[in-house]
Amino acid sequence: MARTRRRAAAALAALGAAGLLAGCSAQAVQMPAPSPPPAADDLCRALVDRVPQTLFGQERIEVRPETPYAAAWGDPPIALRCGVGRPPELRPDSELMVVNEIAWLPEPAERPDLFTAVGREAYVEMTVPHSYGAPGEGLVPISDLIAQEIPALPLGEL
Fold first, then answer.
1. What is the β-pairing status of strands 58-64 and 97-99?
2. CA distance 129 to 111
3. Cα–Cα distance between 33 and 70 in angstroms, integer?
4. Please, where are the H alpha helices in 2-131?
5. C-alpha distances in angstroms, 124 versus 24, 38, 136?
6. Are 71 and 51 in contact (CB under 8 A)?
7. Which pLDDT score is estimated for 154?
8. Which of 44, 55, 62, 125 has its CA 20 to 30 A from that of 76?
9. Before 32, cis peptide (omega within 30)?
């Protein structure tokens, strides 16, 4: 539980740095660049190339440092990172939410704002600030893209 909170807090803190950057440009967000394993490199590039220009009615914004593995929208920023590591909280008995056939690990469990798509050849992480309401509006189009771009792992693997 404490680990989950630290991970979610770290992700949000990284996005919180956008506030500092926003003083220079309201169209950029600073976030840690993921480093996908070689097998996921092309998958993540293809996914990020196809993300929508708008999400939750928010326009896509620049990500710094520049990376082909991340995208962001709006203020406060909604963030997507492809090729992140396996969430340490992911266990065989984890409670997952399924959106258009994509399983997401919501963190923290009691009030999630960090969602990691699991069961695919690359993990995809979405941070959706609570101010946007229910996360489904953003997870639906991203789930559809994940289903098209990132192959599923063998049945039973997360």
1. unpaired
2. 11
3. 7
4. 2-22, 38-50
5. 28, 15, 15
6. yes
7. 92
8. 44
9. no
The residues, any chain, with a CB within 8 Å of residue 126's CB and separated by 6 or more, are: 78, 79, 80, 104, 114, 115, 116, 117, 135, 138, 139, 142
The SS3 call for residue 4 is: helix
Q: Are 86 and 101 in contact (CB under 8 A)?
A: no
Q: Could you give the CA distance from residue 81 to residue 127 in angstroms, rounded to a whole number?
A: 9
Residue holding tokens 């953003």?
A: 138
d(CA 88, CA 15): 20
Q: Is 72 helix (H, G, I), strand (E, B) or coil?
A: strand
The region that residue 8 occupies, defined by phi over 0 for left and psi between -120 and 50 for alpha, beta otherwise, is alpha
Token output for 154: 């063998």
Q: What's the pLDDT tens digit per position in 38-94?
A: 999 999 999 999 999 999 999 999 999 999 999 999 999 999 999 999 999 999 999
Cα 153 to Cα 136: distance, rounded to the nearest angstrom: 23
Report d(CA 58, CA 10) in Å as an integer. 23
Q: ∠ CA(158), CA(41), CA(95), 5° rounding?
A: 20
Helix axes 136-149, 38-50, angle to 10 degrees: 130
